[in-house]
Amino acid sequence: MNDSCDMIGFLNSITATPCDMAKFDDIESFEEDDLPPSKSSIKREAERLKKIGEKLLELSDSLLETFNLDDRLAQAIAEGKRIKSREGLRRHKQYIGKVMRDMDTEALEARLQEIENAHTLNTRAFHELETLRDELIKGDNSAVGNVIERFPGVDTQKLRQLVRNAKKEQQANDSSQDKPETAHARKLFRFLRDTSGN
Fold first, then answer.
1. Residue 197 carries which DSSP code?
2. What residues does each domain of the chain span?
3. pLDDT band at 197 (very low <50, low <70, confident <90, very high)
4. Do domains 37-103 and 126-196 have the same CATH topology?
5. What is the pTM of this model?
6. Tell me, which fold does domain 37-103 have in CATH?
7. How many angstroms separate the CA atoms of 198 and 185, rounded?
8. Most exposed among 36, 75, 76, 135, judged by the fewest C-beta atoms under 10 Å?
9. Which residue has the higher pLDDT, 13 or 62?
10. Looking at residue 120, what is its pLDDT?
């Protein structure tokens, strides 16, 4: 009996009254920005920076010169290009991400996007020229006429000669069991690429 009275007294002492609850409402509300970043958001940001670093490591030195890189970042990338060990490179990519933590990466990301877009356009143009070359080799004179129409300034005599040579090469390849020759097809492709300005 005495124990139950003690328990009721204890519960009454910790029970909040409406007056006590009103005190909690007086506490200033805080914004989510005031909270420290969550572990998962920190991990996402670290992964994002690491991916930027990976893209920078894949670029040629001449393309890297077009970036206005911080000295520490430029040095980290140069060191990363020399690392051959897979595990060492994995750790170094994390280091590059760490170097970029306090940097504004918006300009870097915009420049990387420009490079990726240009690469996509170049790849598409390359495939279009390959298709055009194949049409010229397998097609008739109308294919040559289409190229002349598409590129009005083309050297038609040279184009016709290159197409003739590539067709002969293809016919020889079709009737031979040896490794196919592609020298004339490559010359035709280079001519088309130079003509198109790509």
1. T
2. 37-103, 126-196
3. confident
4. yes
5. 0.52
6. Diphtheria Toxin Repressor; domain 2 (1.10.60)
7. 17
8. 36
9. 62
10. 85
